Every structure is written in C-alpha cells, then in structure tokens.
Amino acid sequence: MPRRLTAKEIISVLSENGFCLIGQKGSHQKWQNAKTGAVTIVPCHGNNQIPIGTIYSIIRASKLDKRLFGF
Questions:
Q1: Which SS3 state, helix, strand or coil, does residue 28 take?
Q2: What mean pLDDT value characterizes the chain?
C-alpha cells in the first residue's frame, strides 16, 4: 500500500520540480509550474496526512512522475 504524505512533503516535491505558489484560499494552496502550465491544489491541514485519493489527484494534475512522490 502506498504511504500517505503530509502537505509539507508534497509541497517540497512540487517546489523541487519548478512549481511556485500562486494563490491560497483558506487552507488550500494553488501551485503552478511556469514551464508546463500545470496547476494543482494542495490542502494544507497542519501535519495531517493527505488521503491517498487526494494525493493521486495532485500527482495527476501536476503531470509529474508518481515516483517523485514515493509511489
């Protein structure tokens, strides 16, 4: 079973791969890659782990390889 990640871990991978924070509404941050134009939303709820389905949705929207996230 894939491991669950925190928002901090996901944001770290996004930042290392060219994503920049472009906005925030409440606890949800919007990240965009300037080269690819990919946009993804990351829910930031403290140190809580993000559900697997949400992580896969973030990976799909980011257009990054899932291995970068440890999957």
A1: strand
A2: 94
Are 20 and 37 in contact by the 8 Å Cβ rule? The answer is no
d(CA 5, CA 27) in angstroms, rounded, equals 16
| Domain 7-69 annotated CATH 3.75.10.20 | no
Give this prediction's pTM.
Answer: 0.92
Closest listed residue to residue 47, CA positions, set 2, 9, 21? 9
**By the 8 A CB rule, do 4 and 50 touch?**
yes
pLDDT tens column, 36-53? 999 999 999 989 999 999
Q: Which two tokens stand for residue 38?
A: 């990919």
